[in-house]
């Protein structure tokens, strides 16, 4: 998958062009990008680079993609980590992994550290006592407070549940910028579908706008999935172009899959 690939390829060539819709969010991230690209400009003015940005919202809306694009736009190293990878049976292992991650980030700076599912380590500490998780979270806070802003390291966290996060994580100097990334509206769905059909042969029956109209409530990941399923269905029928019937079948298939996962989704 793209995520696995990003682990090996530390300098992604993903750019904002690969992220459809989300124009306001890209606008908001321009400042961070400029910080990373021109640190001296900000240093002269006595401004500090923001360390932590939190993306929150439903799954599959492009949080990982966007973080990778910020790395691509700044020629930064991209380090992917998932919160769940840090929480181990043995106390201290997670904390050590956090230390190692930041060491690597500083060594290869400028770096974007992306921590997906940050709630796995960052939920409110009073909700249940978990020594390993608490130590991991504490280490993350220590690292975020500790590095000086001469190291151009920006940490982007992602979660579906902002409300569960420990307030210590959200304080100034830590994850103090919160950006909501929701499901795409019709215009954004159209743009996402365009990105994901760019290299696919479509016949004249396919009207992307109409498909965008029919896919209300679906995420970018679902739309990418639909475009791919439509192509697979066309191949199975030995066609050389994808038609609207293939898309309709793909939509049905993806919707059926979503209903199995979550019966209340639609
Ligand atoms: P999760 O919360 O499940 O980790 P996420 O918000 O990080 O999800 P991504 O992994 O970035 O979502 O998105 C999955 C895939 O969906 C992307 O690799 C891309 O193919 C597609 N996608 C999602 N949003 C967009 C978008 N705005 N533009 C283009 N493609 C998108």
UniProtKB/TrEMBL annotation:
Residues 49-185 form the AAA+ ATPase domain. It is found in: Cell membrane; Membrane. Its cofactor is Zn(2+). ATP binds at residues 57-64. Its main location: membrane. It is a multi-pass membrane protein. Its EC number is 3.4.24.-. Keywords: ATP-binding, Cell cycle, Cell division, Cell membrane, Hydrolase, Membrane, Metal-binding, Metalloprotease, Nucleotide-binding, Protease, Transmembrane, Transmembrane helix, Zinc. It is an enzyme of class 3 (hydrolase). It comes from the Bacteria. GO terms for cellular component: plasma membrane. One of its GO terms (molecular function) is metalloendopeptidase activity. GO terms for biological process: cell division; protein catabolic process; proteolysis. Binds 1 zinc ion per subunit. In the C-terminal section; belongs to the peptidase M41 family. Belongs to the AAA ATPase family. Homohexamer. Acts as a processive, ATP-dependent zinc metallopeptidase for both cytoplasmic and membrane proteins. Plays a role in the quality control of integral membrane proteins. This is ATP-dependent zinc metalloprotease FtsH. It comes from Keratinibaculum paraultunense.
């Amino acid at each position: 998958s793209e995520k696995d690939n990003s682990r090996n390829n530390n300098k992604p060539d993903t750019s904002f062009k690969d992220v459809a819709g989300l124009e306001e969010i890209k606008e908001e991230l321009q400042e961070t990008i400029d910080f990373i690209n021109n640190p001296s400009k900000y240093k002269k003015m006595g401004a500090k680079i923001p360390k932590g940005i939190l993306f929150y919202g439903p799954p599959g809306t492009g949080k990982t993609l966007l973080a990778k694009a910020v790395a691509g736009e700044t020629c930064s190293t991209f380090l992917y980590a998932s919160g769940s990878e840090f929480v181990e049976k043995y106390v201290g292992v997670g904390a050590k992994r956090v230390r190692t991650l930041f060491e690597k980030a500083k060594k290869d700076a400028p770096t974007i550290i992306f921590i997906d599912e940050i709630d796995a380590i960052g939920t409110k500490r009073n909700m249940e006592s978990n020594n390993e998780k608490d130590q991991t979270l504490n280490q993350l806070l220590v690292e975020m407070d500790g590095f000086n802003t001469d190291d151009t390291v920006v940490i982007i966290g992602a979660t579906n549940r902002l409300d569960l996060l420990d307030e210590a994580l959200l304080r100034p100097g830590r994850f103090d910028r919160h950006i909501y990334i929701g499901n795409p509206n019709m215009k954004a769905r159209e743009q996402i579908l365009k990105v994901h059909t760019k290299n696919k042969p479509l016949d004249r029956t396919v009207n992307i706008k109409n498909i965008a109209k029919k896919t209300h409530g679906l995420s970018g990941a679902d739309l990418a999935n639909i475009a791919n399923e439509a192509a697979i269905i066309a191949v199975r029928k030995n066609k050389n172009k994808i038609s609207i019937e293939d898309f309709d079948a793909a939509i049905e298939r993806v919707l059926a899959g979503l209903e199995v996962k979550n019966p209340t989704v639609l």
